[in-house]
Design brief:
- The chain has helices spanning 45-48, 50-55, 77-95, 113-124, 132-136, 138-148, 169-172, 178-187, 202-206, 218-231, 237-243, 247-255, 259-266, and strands at residues 3-8, 17-23, 26-32, 64-66, 72-74, 101-103, 128-130, 161-165, 192-196, 209-211.
- It is α/β, with parallel strands linked by helices.
- A 3-stranded antiparallel β-sheet has the order 1-2-3.
- Strand 6 (101-103), helix 4 (113-124) and strand 7 form a beta-alpha-beta unit.
- Helix 10 runs antiparallel to helix 13.
- The structure holds iron/sulfur cluster.
- Iron/sulfur cluster (SF4) binds next to helix 1.
- This is Molybdopterin oxidoreductase Fe4S4 domain-containing protein.
């Protein structure tokens, strides 16, 4: 019998609440869960295509082993696991666990590694590991650690001023109810949306200010903006004194930036 189930989309960190109508193993219909406290019925197109990811005709349903002629043959899970375990054990015994690099079990959509990776690595005495977040998020985590000593999430829902640099959340989402929030900001005369992007995106179209920099020059644009704040003394000195150390060095540096030159370099009028 058809049945609606409550669940969440795990394809990005927003984890929107969804309701899924199942029929055997198929997701017959998917809709946003209006009762979900964070997403309140919102989803992007990715959640609505979950049945495609789950049941597309080219999805693998059994392990494939390469044959001598280069073609693949289907094998059972028991066979695959036994053969892989045998070979990994041989590598461990011949070269030590440190010669094995575990890759996987990253962030959203990759939670499964959490269930088995620790046990597998212990069994192999492996200790090198990485995952997709190392490629995607190293810079973000590093900056977060330097500035905030931990991970932070922006609160665009309530922000007075939102700045997006080379990002189009209308399409990429990445924060809760992205399209709804972007439209709310655009409609509210008391809030501003600033987009720094060489491309005229949907988000740029909604922006109060679109700084259409030349590709690869966003650093000059950002530096010039900070320099204006410093050189026109629009700085909140009390905030800096309470929340930062050594800001004088940064202010001193910014005081000497040639704003006109930087503006010309990034292709944005001063
Ligand atoms: S924004 Fe899209 S991908 Fe992210 S959790 Fe929500 S529905 Fe899934």
């Amino acid at each position: 019998m058809d049945q609606w189930h409550k669940s969440v989309c795990i394809l990005c960190a927003c984890n929107c609440g969804i309701e899924v109508l199942t029929e055997d193993r198929l997701f017959k219909r998917i809709r946003g869960d209006k009762d979900h406290v964070a997403s309140a019925g919102y989803t992007c197109n990715k959640a609505l295509r979950l049945d495609h990811y789950q049941n597309a005709s080219d999805r693998l349903t059994s392990p494939l082993r390469r044959k001598d002629n280069g073609e693949f043959e289907e094998i059972s899970w028991d066979t695959a696991i036994a053969e892989i375990a045998e070979r990994l054990k041989a590598v461990r015994d011949a070269h030590g666990g440190e010669s094995i690099f575990f890759y996987g079990g990253g962030g959203q959509g990759n939670h499964l590694g959490g269930a088995y990776s620790a046990a597998l690595m212990r069994g192999l005495r492996a200790w090198h590991r990485s995952n997709a977040l190392a490629q995607e998020k190293t810079g973000e985590f590093w900056v977060d650690a330097q500035l905030h000593r931990g991970h932070t999430a922006p609160d665009f829902e309530h922000a007075e001023v939102s700045v997006f640099v080379g990002k189009n959340p209308w399409q990429s989402h990445g924060f809760p109810r992205a399209r709804v929030v972007l439209k709310e900001i655009a409609r509210d005369p008391a809030r501003s949306l600033i987009v720094i992007d060489p491309v005229r995106t949907e988000t740029a179209d909604l922006a109060d200010i679109h700084l259409q920099v030349k590709p690869g020059t966003d650093a000059w644009c950002l530096a010039a903006m900070v320099a204006v704040v410093v050189q026109e003394d629009l700085v909140d000195h009390t905030f800096l004194a309470e929340h930062t150390t050594d800001s004088a060095q940064v202010l001193e540096h910014m005081a000497h930036i040639k704003v006109a030159e930087y503006a010309q370099r990034c292709g944005v009028s001063e």
